[in-house]
Amino acid sequence: AQSVAQPEDQVNVAEGNPLTVKCTYSVSGNPYLFWYVQYPNRGLQFLLKYITGDNLVKGSYGFEAEFNKSQTSFHLKKPSALVSDSALYFCAVRDPSGAGSYQLTFGKGTKLSVIP
Amino acid sequence: GAVVSQHPSRVICKSGTSVKIECRSLDFQATTMFWYRQFPKQSLMLMATSNEGSKATYEQGVEKDKFLINHASLTLSTLTVTSAHPEDSSFYICSADRGQGYGYTFGSGTRLTVV
């Protein structure tokens, strides 16, 4: 079974500082990894994904994430945080080779607060 | 880009009534759609996988007779909450699979309040 862990319920960062939101995963095969952002009472917006290729993935709004197979991690990063980045962030994994291969499994989410 | 429209965004209904939520893929065909439920300050819980032209696959613990899913076309899936009760109040989100390993596209969600 696939799983995702986001160890931090909340991350606080000052505006202009770099931010990191952590994610680790567990799958039996090679993972497809995703980051989504959710604003209050809204659906999820896609930020970026890793399928194959370069371990450093660049996505929307200046976000990037690095796939680290040995550490089974896919941490989300941004060099300079904006107040408008404050939202709920979800990491998700899909194992295309396993049973239920269409399913995305989500982490519990990390609330990011960027302080002016 | 791919857009999924979910309607209504907010609905209030009385206990015992049924509510239908629609999920449409506007610019692509989706053979597979997913329905999630999200409790306050919690992650998304997959309720069911909706497959066009066939029966939905429900996750363990999800009542098939309460949460009716219909995927009649490649662009539309519906979730009907039957005989709703206050405990069914939640945020429901759909998503559609664009295929080719893309991340799924999500609807904007429906806030259901049963009074």
Most extensive interface: A-B, 21 and 23 residues
Give me the strand/helix succession of chain A.
EEEEEEEEEEEE
Strand runs of chain B, count: 11
N/C terminus separation of chain A? 41 Å
Beta-strand residue fraction of chain A: over 45%
- Class by alpha and beta content of chain B: mainly beta
How many strand units of chain A?
12
Based on helices, strands and strand pairing, what is the structural class of chain A?
mainly beta
Radius of gyration of chain A: 14 Å
Shape descriptor of chain A: globular
Q: Which residues of chain B form runs of ≥5 with pLDDT under 50?
A: none
Q: Which ranges of chain A are low-confidence, i.e. pLDDT below 50, for 5 or more consecutive residues?
A: none
| pLDDT averaged residue by residue of chain A | 91
Content of β-strand of chain B? over 45%
- Percent helix of chain B, as a range, is under 10%
Enumerate how many helices of chain A there are, as a single number.
0
Features:
heterodimer; A: 116 residues; mainly beta; 4-stranded antiparallel β-sheet; 50% strand; B: 115 residues; 7-stranded mixed β-sheet
Molecular structure report:
The complex is a heterodimer of chains A (116) and B (115). With 116 residues, chain A is mainly β. Chain A has strands spanning 3-5, 10-14, 19-21, 24-26, 32-38, 44-50, 56-58, 64-68, 73-78, 87-94, 105-106, 110-115. In chain A, the strands form three sheets. In chain A, strands 2, 5, 6, 10, 11 and 12 form a six-stranded mixed beta sheet that branches. Chain A has a four-stranded antiparallel beta sheet with strand order 3-9-8-7, with no helix packed on it. A two-stranded antiparallel ribbon of chain A has the order 1-4. The mean pLDDT of chain A is 91. With 115 residues, chain B is an all-beta fold. The N and C termini of chain B lie far apart (37 Å). Chain A binds chain B through residues 32, 34, 36, 41-46, 49, 51, 90, 92, 96, 102-104, 106-109, and chain B through 4, 6, 32, 34, 42-44, 46, 49, 91, 93, 95, 97, 101-109, 111.
